[in-house]
Amino acid sequence: DKSKMVGVDIGTYYPVLGKSNTEIAAASRSQHRCQGMGRPLSRGSSMEYLELLKGDLPSSKDNLFAGIDITWSRIKGGAPIQKALEAIDAGFRYDNPSASVPALLAVYRKIKALPDNQWKSIKLEEIKDVIQACLALFMEATVSERTATPGQSVEVELELVNRSPIKAELQSIHFMGAQKDTSLQLNLPENETQKFYQRVQIPKDAPFTSPYWLNKPADLGMYTVDDQSLRGLPETPRFLRVAFDLLIDGEKMRVERDVLYKGSDRVEGETYQPFDILPPVFAGTTDNVYIFANQAPKTVSVKLRAGADAVKGTIELCLPENWEVEPAKQDFSLALKGAEQQIDFKLYPPEEQSVGTILAMAKVDGKTYTNDLISIEYSHIPIQSVLRPGEARVVKVDLHKAGDRIGYIMGAGDEIPASLEQVGYQVDILDDNEITPANLKQYDAVILGIRAYNTVDRMKFHQPILLDYVKEGGTMIVQYNTTWQMEFPMEQIAPYPLKLSRERVTVEEAPVRFLAPDHPVLNEPNKITEHDFDGWVQERGLYFPNEWDPQFQAILSCNDPGETPKDGGLLVAPYGKGYYIYTGYSWFRELPAGVPGAYRLFTNLISLGKKAQP
User: Fold this and answer.
1) pLDDT of res. 379
2) Are 408 and 416 contacting, i.e. CB atoms less than 8 angstroms apart?
3) pLDDT tens column, 431-455
4) How far apart are alpha carbons 370 and 502 in whole angstroms?
């Protein structure tokens, strides 16, 4: 029954673009590449139906917006503007856009005369953009370096070209942020380049450039943005901007531009990037997490990078309680902008289990800088400079283990090998040629990385070898795989029937129940308690099996609020002399994040069937 539904044809064709809406949608989904969500394009009519839950049905069930006035008529004084714009549209000449400028300026004056409101502000900027486009008016303000520091002086090149016969004049410029005004009265003759330079001093208290939503610590699932005007903006507004005060055919108009960095690439040619204001020095640890399984100290390396020339100062670590470091602080000197220096400290853990954060602090000319710089650089977006605290998580974990050597078959890619090496395991990444019966004998456990069965082409050939390894006494740990639009290279990924599902537990604090409290993986060599599931990040696990052979024993159960129990997250089956373990719990998130309980339980999986070390 579609009587209370509104039909929307999502297959609409757009002649201006030469594409259908569904083609655009499929192409956009195919850009979500980290998740492998590419789709073939589709064309032609495709109806979707929306059910009305509240309110009145549109006057036409074929038009979701029927009966909604989206014209200028809904704004007081807007009817003449609507009429004028329709006339401009009807008489527009694509071969001479500037012919529309006088009429557009008249509309601009009408909009300025409206009472102040949000729509007036929006439409003034839009009509100015249209006027500039019809004038083919080029204006830019650029610098020759991509970054600068507060207090630094930069030379700004300003270039303007009026590529139309309409009379235009640059009366003055104003550098917002730097508070510098210059009167010019510069005529802009048709198609003649006007270029000049201005030296600008960046204020010493200028804010650093960084995404506004990352400037304060976030709450769970929510960024902290106090300034309401920033919310929803794709980027942080630039501090250094130029206002061009123009006189166009007798009408005054202010047009603003960001100051940009302009460069030249031998392949790409002329390039533009944002101009960022950044600290004179960046400091951060080379690792995000340091795991201590005993009292031995570890080296913490701090990487310093200069954001300006001739930067000197001291570097030290801010520590959690009961942790110690040697030496307390050290000097550094960076001669040139971009230069790097690495300084090492010895970090000593406390005796008891402890979780905390260390922070690198660089002191220069009486000021303290605690941020590291992350540059996000892709060809399809502007460079993003992200300032993040130069900190690392430090974890002293009460850990016992059996076995030392692990073979790891990498799947889609994860950081578990490095995490296990931090607590004393020797981890060898195995390529296809190393997965042989003779080679596997040396390993206490063989671990398959996330989605190994989805991504390793030769798994169907490796599977018999791996199961023989288990049969002869080895321990095989298989992390999550997915069946979503993917086929396994073999019918079964386990020695006994096992069916994967799309079940997951997304609440990382979801209570975990012990289904087999006496099983060795919950007791040896580390006694697992409910507290070992504290502090997990992002989720409990994903793609849990929902059917399995009686040979498997389910160890744990959990579920999201209001959901049914998910018992398939950790399944253990004896096979021959060894053990096959399938686990959908998110070890690939928890171990790199330094979650102590995750290390203790994962170590128990590796240790299964072996005698613990004293």
Assistant:
1) 87
2) yes
3) 999 999 999 999 999 999 999 999 9
4) 42
How far is residue 413's CA from residue 314's CA, in Å, rounded to a whole number? 38
Q: CA-CA distance, 192 to 157, in Å (whole number)?
A: 16
The SS3 assignment for 58 reads coil
Contact indicator for 210, 386 with CB cutoff of 8 Å: yes
Other Cβ atoms closer than 10 A to 93: 10
Whole-angstrom distance, CA of residue 425 vs CA of residue 396: 16
Whether the predicted pLDDT of 485 surpasses 60: no
Q: Which residues contact 605 (CB under 8 A, 6 or more apart)?
A: 445, 475, 477, 521, 581, 583
CA angle centred on 299, ends 296 and 301, rounded to 5°? 160
Please give the pLDDT value at position 612. 64
Least confident of 160-169, 213-222, 266-275, 545-554: 213-222
Report the alpha-carbon distance of residue 316 to residue 363 in Å, rounded. Answer: 9
Cβ-proximal residues to 327 (8 Å cutoff; 6+ apart), any chain: 345
Residues 302-352: tens digit of each pLDDT:
999 999 999 999 999 999 999 999 999 999 999 999 999 999 999 999 999
DSSP-assigned states of every residue in 352-364: S-EEEEEEEEEEE
Distance CA(436)–CA(480), nearest Å, equals: 23
What are 572-592's pLDDT values in tens digits?
999 999 999 999 999 999 999
pLDDT at 127 over 90: yes
Quote the mean pLDDT of the chain: 94
Quote the CA–CA distance of 579 and 318 in Å, as a whole number: 44
Judged against a pLDDT cut of 80, whether residue 614 lies above it is answered with no
Provide the pairing of β-strand 194-201 with 269-274. Answer: unpaired
What is the mean pLDDT of the segment spanning 264-269?
Answer: 92
What crossing angle do the helices spanning 101-112 and 79-90 adopt, rounded to 10°?
170
Given this chain, do its domains 281-396 and 405-607 carry the same CATH topology?
A: no
Q: Mean pLDDT, to the nearest integer, of 362-381? A: 95
d(C-alpha 501, C-alpha 547), whole Å: 8
CA 407, 408, 412 angle in degrees (round to 5)?
170
Rounded CA separation 386/404 (Å): 39
State how far the alpha carbon of 128 is from the alpha carbons of 36, 121, 139, 141, 170, in Å.
41, 11, 13, 18, 15
Cross-strand pairs, 247 = 169, 252
Q: Give the whole-angstrom CA distance, residue 62 versus residue 178.
A: 53
Task: Give the class (CATH, top level) of 405-607.
Answer: alpha beta
Residues 6+ apart with CB under 8 A from 348: 295, 297, 323, 324, 325, 326
Return the domain boundaries, the chain: 1-68, 136-218+237-277, 281-396, 405-607
Segment (H or E) for 311: strand 311-318
The yes/no answer on whether domain 136-218+237-277 falls in CATH 3.40.980.10 is no
Average pLDDT over residues 90-116: 96
φ, ψ dihedrals at 72, nearest 5° = -65, -15
| CATH of span 281-396 | 2.60.40.10
Cα–Cα distance, 585 to 479 (Å, whole number): 8
Confidence of residue 23 (pLDDT cuts 50, 70, 90): very high
Please state the pTM of the whole predicted model. Answer: 0.84
Residue 6: pLDDT band (50, 70, 90) is confident
